[in-house]
Specification:
Layout (H helix, E strand, L loop, with lengths): L2 H13 L6 H7 L4 E10 L5 E12 L5 E2 L2 E4 L4 H17 L6 E7 L7 H15 L8 E2 L8 H15 L23 H17 L7 E5 L3 H12 L3 E7 L2 E4 L6 H11 L9 E3 L1 H5 L3 E6 L16 E5 L8 H9 L3 E3 L1 H4 L1 H16 L5 H26 L3 H16 L3
Parallel strand pairs: 3-6, 4-5, 7-8, 7-11, 11-12, 12-13
Antiparallel strand pairs: 1-2, 2-5, 8-9, 9-10
Helix pairs in contact: 1-3, 1-14, 3-14, 4-5, 6-7, 6-12, 6-13, 12-13, 13-14
The protein binds glutamic acid.
Length: about 400
């Protein structure tokens, strides 16, 4: 299953919904630049190992390329291209002045020591230093990357250009110019989006239990927020397995359990389940927060959620989308649902540019309206064209890109 093929099918579907500018559509079918690098890293045992890294710059019509860096054993060009394309759509949906890019290294970072990981990040930064920059292309964290790694990128980049340039990357630690609230922004933004749809659809919190696939940064934060707002989070999984308790899981205790054991399984009182059981549990909201291609045409008929909130990028295939559309399951698309992360990256970039530091309250007071307005605009577009939420998000984004696109 190719994430990139799926992404392009989403684009073509959106093009059937509304009269979109053909030249802009054609621009969005092709990346502007692809950087494919191999670089050596000195390992702790004295050997030298080569790693494969990518940076795809999809489109910069609306501003500098923006998007995360992913460290994962399955990272390959097809995936990075899809993710870079989705960033282009996402930044336009949320109305921030950025284009779309994405990068990654094919590596399982859990197999590297701290020192090896730092040397890898430095070597990768040197390999892409020519093409990134605060007004050119601004990386950020993604799957398996975090603030300390972004700090290393900023440090290495600063050494190359001869002065500190924190705005070259977002998602840094606070001490190194990161923004308050960036760490929890993806989950927080997802909750704001959910809230807009809840008001709109009359979704009943009493009947609505929550299932979260993936317990990384985004998954943990959204689970905590749902729990905090009185919802029952009945099942959660990570890459090693899932757990289920119909009475609702104690999420703060589960986060502690995950921190001490490295996994969600083994949590006291919960039943162990596999990914397939998790995705097909009856629930109010299913929140895929892991990787692409989780909800496929094969599994879609067994999914019993009323609503799907895509915190992961690309978790639903076009076949599954078609099934959900036909059967009235609302899919809140990734390019809206997880846009709180990049929206807050924009606020971090603005703070770096002006030398300011805003409180978490100030940051969220700026991020929340960006996200709520984007959600309302998507809903409005869906109503206008009788489209799905994903088609509407794409139409909205492509219309916005067309306004500024140069040929
Ligand atoms: N990796 C995140 C995403 O997929 C954030 C990107 C960013 O902040 O630039 O949206």
């Amino acid at each position: 299953m190719s994430a990139f093929t799926n992404a392009m099918r989403q684009l073509e579907l959106a093009a059937t919904i509304a009269p979109l500018d053909p030249a802009t559509l054609e621009r969005l079918r092709h990346p502007q630049r692809i950087v494919d690098v191999q670089f050596p890293v000195k390992m702790d045992n004295g050997s030298t190992k080569f790693f494969h890294g990518y940076r795809v710059q999809w489109n910069n019509d609306r501003g500098p390329y923006k998007g995360g860096l992913r460290f994962h054993a399955q990272v390959e060009m097809d995936e990075v291209k899809a993710l870079a394309f989705w960033m282009t759509i996402k930044c336009a949906v949320v109305g921030i002045p950025f284009g779309g890019g994405k990068g990654g290294v094919t590596v399982n970072p859990k197999e590297l020591s701290k020192g090896e990981l730092e040397r890898l990040m430095r070597a990768f930064t040197r390999s892409i230093a020519d093409v990134i920059g605060p007004d050119k292309d601004i990386p950020a964290p993604d799957v398996n990357t975090n603030p300390p790694l972004m700090d290393i990128l900023a440090d290495e980049y600063g050494k190359i250009i001869g002065h500190a340039e924190p705005a070259v990357v977002t998602g840094k630690s606070i001490a190194h110019g990161g923004s308050e609230g960036r760490g929890t922004a993806t989950g927080q933004g997802g909750y704001y989006v959910f809230d807009v749809y809840r008001e709109k659809s009359g979704f009943d919190p009493e009947s609505g239990s929550i299932v979260v696939q993936g317990f990384g940064n985004a998954g943990q934060v959204i689970a905590k927020l749902f729990h905090h707002h009185g919802y029952r989070v009945i099942a959660v999984s990570d890459s090693q397995g899932g757990i289920h308790d119909e009475r609702g899981l104690d999420i703060p205790a589960l986060i502690k359990h995950k921190e001490s054991t490295g996994r969600v399984s083994g949590f006291f009182g919960a039943r162990e389940i596999n990914q397939e059981e998790l995705l097909t549990l009856p629930c109010g909201v299913l929140v895929p927060s892991a990787l692409e291609n989780q909800l496929t045409g094969e599994i879609a008929p067994r999914v019993q959620a009323q609503m799907i909130l895509e915190l992961a990028n690309g978790p639903t295939t076009p076949e599954a989308d078609a099934y959900f559309a036909k059967h009235g399951t609302i899919v809140i698309p990734d390019v809206l649902a997880n846009a709180g992360g990049v929206a807050t990256s924009f606020l971090e970039w603005q703070q770096n540019k002006t030398g300011e530091h805003w409180s978490e309250k100030e940051v969220f007071a700026r991020m929340e309206p960006l996200i709520r307005e984007a959600a309302k605009a998507v809903i409005h577009t869906a109503e206008k064209y009788g489209a799905t939420q994903r088609e509407a998000a794409f139409v909205l984004a492509i219309e916005r890109i067309a306004e500024v696109a140069r040929s």
